[in-house]
Amino acid sequence: MPEYSNIIDVPAAFANIKDYVVIKKSAHFPNYHDFDDIDIFCKDRDLFVQQLEENLSNLGLPAYRLNTTVKQNNTHIDVWFEFSSNLNLRFDIYDRFPYSKFLTSAAYYDDIINNFVEEEYSGILVRIPPPLDDMVIRFFEWIEHPNKKKHFDFVNTQHERHAELEEIVLEYSTVPYHYVAQLETPSAPE
Description:
Largest sheet: 5 strands, mixed
Distance between the termini: 42 Å
Number of helices: 7
CATH topology of the domain at 10-130: Nuclear Transport Factor 2, Chain: A
Strand content: 15-25%
Shape: globular
């Protein structure tokens, strides 16, 4: 894999924005490669987009253009730099759960945003979901997109949290139990 792109200071792009969390954060965040995307849950999509665009305009970036695509459940903001033919970075912004294979609780969506935790990058705090909620989101993502097995694998390695995950999934969604049952049970202590 080539070097990181990192033309955009991703934490600075989120500075002073409220009511959001970066979901399914990659292990190398805030570093990124061309064509990567950053998924975001927020409460007010239009306000978030406005604040993100304002922050990007204040970063002193080389000449760029934004391609914005508004869909029913999300907005894509694609950042293209004039010196490159590659998509530099996509911000994928949601204001509700984007799942169609099962129902999810709007109250739980709000709880994920309200119960954010912060991670510091170069002096800037970025909001992310608490670890258990991150697991639930990744589990939902795998059910919606079974080809994204990396999310299932991420959840499945955290045996100690499976009972809590099961409780949340069954309380706040209509995910059938047979998906939860696919998680491995840790072996009994010796």
